[in-house]
Amino acid sequence: MNKLYIKDLKVGDVLVNHKFAIKDFAKKVGKTNNEYYTVVLSDKTGFIDAKIWSNSFAECSVDQIKIGNVVNVTGKIDEYNSTPQIILEKMIITEEYNAGDFLSEGTRDANEIFNSILETVDLLEDTDIKNLILDIFKNEDLLKKYKQVPAGEFVHHSFVGGLLEHVYEMLEFAKTAKILYPDINFSELAFGVIFHDIGKIEELGVNGVVMERTLPGYLIGHLGQGLLLVNKHFPENFDVTKKNRLLHMILSHHGEKDKGSPIQPMTLEALVLSEIDTLSSRVGIYYTNLSKGETDEKGLTAYSKYLGASFLVHKDTEEP
């Protein structure tokens, strides 16, 4: 495919017939009423912003482009707000591509990760919660999506199987939290970890060779979808208070109302869930930023608007 992937691109590079997938595409109007397009291009190594100015509209097929298309791109990489972007001169839809070059996957085997999660479930002391988890996973369509869906579109764990890796990381953090804080009900916390983002299987879907938000994702969101998916699996004789505690974790795991949760965490397990979700997510954002491969002469990465900082990359050094 390409000689270089997105993670290898540098400011000043000139691209000629370089293949990317269209992740996002929108028409904008500037301060002087000039029209232009903002584009997010992707491959399996990440994303890069791009712009189309009015003098390139015709050469960039702006009336034909749709999210999910694979395109041949010609342009030059410059820098905007300390972040690389491509100024597009030409963009043509192509049908000649390898889908594996665009849908990135995690480094761990999905079945191995899932089996590790099941090993943790098998050790849960609350048999009602254990049986509920296993019952939910009996749905083959749900399980298939659960193993494949990313944890996010752009920001963290945004690759095939990303949700599964995110859950695995959080379960490991949860085990440590249980050691440090013995009052934690680990069965409840494990349930919250495993299903806090289950709504992502309905919120995100594949369009062509890119992951994108679905209409239910826009209208209901993954917290609402998660509540709907899990709620229908409770048996009639399930303890009502316990049920409410479990559903509470799905609705409150973003931690604060201004971050998307309709309610804030009100149990110890919900509080811990929210914090380890944030930890896994923010470290995931760090690695997403690192994967772009851009560092300055000091070894600092490009600025991450999600974390509000650049980061110093570890480099192997010899002992003096």
Give the helix/strand layout:
Blueprint (H helix, E strand, L loop, with lengths): L13 E16 L5 E9 L2 E7 L17 E11 L2 E11 L16 H13 L4 H10 L3 H9 L13 H19 L5 H10 L4 H4 E4 L2 E4 L1 H5 L1 H11 L8 H13 L15 H24 L29
Parallel strand pairs: 3-5
Antiparallel strand pairs: 1-2, 1-4, 2-3, 4-5, 6-7
Helix pairs in contact: 1-4, 4-5, 4-10, 5-9, 5-10, 9-10
What are the salient characteristics of this protein?
alpha+beta; 2 domains; two-stranded antiparallel ribbon; 10 helices; 7 strands; Hypothetical protein af1432; OB fold (Dihydrolipoamide Acetyltransferase, E2P)
Note the total helix count. Answer: 10
Rg is 22 Å
What's the CATH architecture name of the largest domain? Orthogonal Bundle
Number of strands: 7
Can you tell me the CATH class of the largest domain? Mainly Alpha
CATH topology type of the largest domain: Hypothetical protein af1432
Uncertain regions: pLDDT < 50 for 5+ in a row? none
Number of domains: 2
